[in-house]
Amino acid sequence: MKSVFVEEDKVEIQHDYMRKLREMLGNRRENYYIDTYGCQQNEADSERIAGMLEQSGYHRTENENEADVLVVNSCAVRGHAEMRILGNVGALSHIKRRNPNAVLVLCGCMAGEPNMVERLKKSFPYVDIIFSPDAIWRFPELLHRKLTGAKRVYAVENKDYTIAEGLPVSRKDTLKAYVSIMYGCDNFCAYCIVPYTRGRERSRRPEDVIAEVKCLVENGCRDITLLGQNVNSYGKYDDFNCDFADLLQRLSEIPGEFLLRFMTSHPKDASRKLIDVMASSPKIAKCLHLPFQSGSDRILKIMNRHYDREKYLSIVDYAREKMPDIVLTSDVIVGFPGETDEDFEKTISLVERVGYDALFTFIFSPREGTPAAKMDDPFTKGEKQVHFDRLLAVQNAISEQKHAEYIGKTVRVLVDGVDHDDASVLTSRTNGNRLVRVKADKSLIGRFITVKITGSTMWSLTGEPVFD
Q1: Measuring CA to CA, which residue among 142, 226, 171 is closest to residue 47?
Q2: Contacts 24+ apart (CB under 8 A), 82-87
Q3: Nearest CA to 190 among 391, 364, 387, 385?
Q4: What is the pLDDT of residues 195-218, one digit of tens each?
Q5: Is 302 helix (H, G, I), strand (E, B) or coil?
Q6: pLDDT class for 296, splitting at 50, 70, 90?
Q7: Tens of pLDDT, residues 333-342
Q8: 216 near 259, Cβ under 8 Å?
Q9: Cβ neighbours of residue 212 closer than 8 Å, sequence gap 6 or more
Q10: DSSP characters for 110-177?
């Protein structure tokens, strides 16, 4: 669908609500707390919510017990995630008992599921505000309604599928940032709930994305990840005269020292033009997250993925031809309904053929409302676990070997923080997003430096700075 943008006067109304909320607070200090689950898009959404709350006069706290507004930004991709979130929402009832004036908010993909919304309304009466992802831009209005007398506030229609620009964003990290370039999804993979919870695909205007990235770079951001459910279809329905490869090229021309990353990239729309642009610019990270989900053409067709094994491998081979050192990662689902031993062996053979640096692996989780939830599934959880464990063993061996091959090499990294386990060690990321632990002075945080890799594990590398 063609992107629809919220009119400026309607966005200004939300700024008016933020001003009203500040006036209501007066000199009183109140705090907010956001608990975020799921994908990077949810992280980006939480930063928008934080920006609106801070513009409304609230202060961030990392202690939920100190919060006057508690936001749970939920994920609906897997059943286990939903159950964990519901458990944590239930545990928040003690905060409402202690502070009846506290406002408990649930948003994210769970709030885009009609059945889940009804469950939340009935079983969690202390949840004050529920809004779907499409209604984030209206959050100041919803909060104002609650604080001025409304009993419970809902915005779960998920029908408008609009894009709102000009609202504040508050990021914790000054070195790294997520920038959403589009929202929603039109792919309707048989197992995925996202098109039903986040709506149809729509893209931000290129000039708005460019302005945001330019501002981030000017303010010291060095690692920027562009987000979309399928970035490769950016601008597909609009008259921007700018596809994703064009956008990436234009962003790479922004002055400054920084790296651009992106996710997620759907194989059906991955083009040679995109690979060529990636290869052409030192500001575009040489890493590609390209979910394949299954190595079996039969399963891919049932999944409604719109590519086959041959097409997928042709993209990988072209990327390696243009960027021999490219880091490849992927997603794979084990135990999709009807997956046989033969189908699974094709997944294993694809993993071995490509040689991924890392995989994100999942056992199939049926989501109510998707076609896959209604499919016959004759295989037991135990049988699927056997396949899952074998896939992990194969990939872990590949990852360990890939990391060992770095030893002795020098690589450019962005030093981004202090190691959680050892304060004398700094963390950094390679161009391909591999974690490198370095013993170095904290003054290097925020800088690109060269390191020599001296050791490796399955999950990370160690190195030492190399100075000219």
Answers
A1: 171
A2: 82/110, 82/116, 84/37, 85/37, 85/110, 86/124
A3: 364
A4: 999 988 999 999 999 999 999 999
A5: helix
A6: very high
A7: 999 999 999 9
A8: no
A9: 179
A10: GGG-HHHHHHHHHH-TT--EEE-GGGGGGHHHHHHHHHTT-S-EEE------EE--S-----S-SSEE
